[in-house]
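Our collaborator T.R. sent over the components below with a one-line note: 'Predict the complex.' Nothing else. No constraints on interfaces, no templates requested, no preferences about which chain binds where. So this is a plain run: every listed entity goes in together, and whatever single assembly comes back becomes the starting point for the next discussion.
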Amino acid sequence: MNQAKKIEVTDVILRDAHQSLIATRMRTEDMLPICEKLDQVGYWSLEVWGGATFDACVRFLKEDPWERLRQLRAALPNTRLQMLLRGQNLLGYRHYADDVVEAFVAKAAKNGIDVFRVFDALNDIRNLETAMKAVKKAGKHAQGTICYTTSPVHTPGLFVKQAIAMRDMGADSIAIKDMAGLLTPYATYDLVAALKAELDLPVVVHSHSTAGLAPLCQLKAIEAGADRIDTAISSFANGTSHPATEGQVAALRGTAYDTGLDLELLAEIADYFREVRKKYHQFESEFTREDVSVQINQVPGGMMSNLANQLKEQNALDKIREVFAEIPRVRKDLGYPPLVTPTSQIVGTQAVYNVLAGERYKTITNEVKRYLQGGYGAAPAEVDAQLQKKAIGNESVDVGRPADLLKPELNKLREDIGDLALTEEDVLTFAMFPDLGREFLQQRAEGTLKPEELLPPDAAKGAKLGQA
Amino acid sequence: MNQAKKIEVTDVILRDAHQSLIATRMRTEDMLPICEKLDQVGYWSLEVWGGATFDACVRFLKEDPWERLRQLRAALPNTRLQMLLRGQNLLGYRHYADDVVEAFVAKAAKNGIDVFRVFDALNDIRNLETAMKAVKKAGKHAQGTICYTTSPVHTPGLFVKQAIAMRDMGADSIAIKDMAGLLTPYATYDLVAALKAELDLPVVVHSHSTAGLAPLCQLKAIEAGADRIDTAISSFANGTSHPATEGQVAALRGTAYDTGLDLELLAEIADYFREVRKKYHQFESEFTREDVSVQINQVPGGMMSNLANQLKEQNALDKIREVFAEIPRVRKDLGYPPLVTPTSQIVGTQAVYNVLAGERYKTITNEVKRYLQGGYGAAPAEVDAQLQKKAIGNESVDVGRPADLLKPELNKLREDIGDLALTEEDVLTFAMFPDLGREFLQQRAEGTLKPEELLPPDAAKGAKLGQA
Ligand SMILES: [Co+2]
Ligand SMILES: [Co+2]
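Returned assembly:
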């Protein structure tokens, strides 16, 4: 312990924790009653919005995500509110034109977001630029994000280069986002130490405890100079979620890194969410438990279960080991993209094709073609030239920022959705999900919004008692 | 990382893991099929016997614990087998005469134990002496144990003094036994560093992950020079059990501390035990989950749930906070004993009396009287003189080793059990549990041994599916 400093805590209980453990299904009605206590804790921030929550609100919960944000803002007057933003993809599944990105960030800021964690699946920072600028323009905290992955090119040096570029872009802090639980304690130490040596910015570690290593990674990160950790209240912690807030607070208590947070208050909040979790029992899955596999084959847990389902549908589950072996080869061919939405799907699906066809790249998916044309941005390393030629022939590779090809589209979106949008926020909801968003706004107008049904809590209780 | 060394691993899956999570109920038939794989891992040792397993075998499973040991010995030819021994209490609930201790250790060694972890609830090493000598006489590994606790007197210095005394007694290694999950990472670092500075013996960290801190504590212990860690295969890990073997192995892989264990083999073993665990679903309890409470009030989890039950029976559950507040006061009056069997019961019950009577020490339990007479050994610190006088009046305090007052008793035990004992091991079973042991031997003779019933696995499966 060579320097004393208070470690700051971001609790992800209202966003990533339930996204990781109960398929993003927590409803606003279960968040509001505990906000008064959450607001007393003294967190550096609460992550409450973005990621898959916007989609889940519109798709399953039939809640207006903007209304959730305003309610949380009102209920948490003393705590920074944070969101996760997929760079130029915002919260949707394609690249948006800059005018949409600018409008979205401005509206998120206006409705209550203080801290924007902005990332790109390829770590191509050109895909962050518009969003970061918009955050700064709104006077908010712009957090530049490193999507952590392992490969011959993903050295601490490469990540430091990325962080410096994000700083030059105006980043107020740097997040290490380890979505798959790939980080190990001493690799974390080395990465954080390298970042702190070259940058004068706060560093945050966001690591999923998929393999059980995240609490250890955060401890070593702190020793290397990290300033902040992402944790989740214990009743929604561990496994594919995050280290437990109480555990990390207790680990640091009485040391030079003391967070200053009150364990008794945290324990009360944990009791609250333990009850809440029971309500969502139908979304519990065995795939969220701690599993060291990602440390063995470097394939994220979510990707493994998706591939298993995909193969099962095609009666080819027996090929799963071959597919796991093919994934790193496809990833190498594509210049080692981090495996996160959408690259995990792009790599995974191509690997399945390669194995099932009995010949590599006999069929090349449209997404791989688009990737090799530069449609998602720059690959971290050189892609395989032969494969690229096979995929796109003589078509040119676009080396610019993908969104540079997109014309302003906000006006068209406004026109398309018309009177169904009562506000600019509604237009942005429609922008994220053309079909789903329209349906949502339509049903809202008709007064027919109906959240998906929850199985009765009594059934869950009965089942649990049966097991006890 | 200032020195490279391979960290050794003891897996407690066959003893402490199921003792902690499913009330010590795992049967030998569920251990044997996986022994071939366990034997290939290259563990420094497997903890397989002692603690509560002897009691559970005789009481619930109607298995001969000696036969279990012999079967495991045969099935694990390449791995050291380890047991936990409560010093002069052996595996029973009173102090035994030296001849019984000597015979027990000799027989345990003969039947297959290589490593004896010997502890005393008060850390009074006079209660370890006979057992340690017997281990050395049998040519086996004697592990001297520190029961970790916190108090004004329990400094690293005090523990180092104890460790030195155990070394002088012949200890081959030193275990830090944190039964309650009280250790924090940096306290662990300091303690291990102090031990390694003063002793040239291997140090092992055995810490329950009750508050979620054990994996962190082990990491810091290793950095401070610890040589070995106790872990449990992931399907029986975490919470009141131990850090997951796979997680700790992955955390150290590729570093100077690499354990050298094969993650794929460990994952296969985890899969096996995940299925086994389902068979014992009726013994699962919500009290085994990770809970930071012990870090808040320093009262071990098991003790808290026992006290809750005790108070509920007396319709006084509303007094539980008062009882929790009284526990540290009683503990102080008694010279800060670690809270572990039997001292946790002694302190807890007296605290309940003190609160329910509305007057402290209006009633003093017989166990507290015996404790204050020196009947369990020396308290770690001065006891409250006034309380002592009130409890035992003018009776003298015994300052000697409690077992010095006990005459040899093995012959009498042999006579008492008579023909029901077919072997010396049977006599020792009877010695541990006079009533239960006799009943067991009787039923064995009659051929009427019948293990407690397990609820059908299908019911569990149904319940789980209902929740999924
Ligand atoms: Co995340
Ligand atoms: Co233990």
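Summary for T.R.: Strands of chain B lie at 8-11, 45-50, 80-85, 115-118, 141-147, 173-178, 203-207, 228-231.
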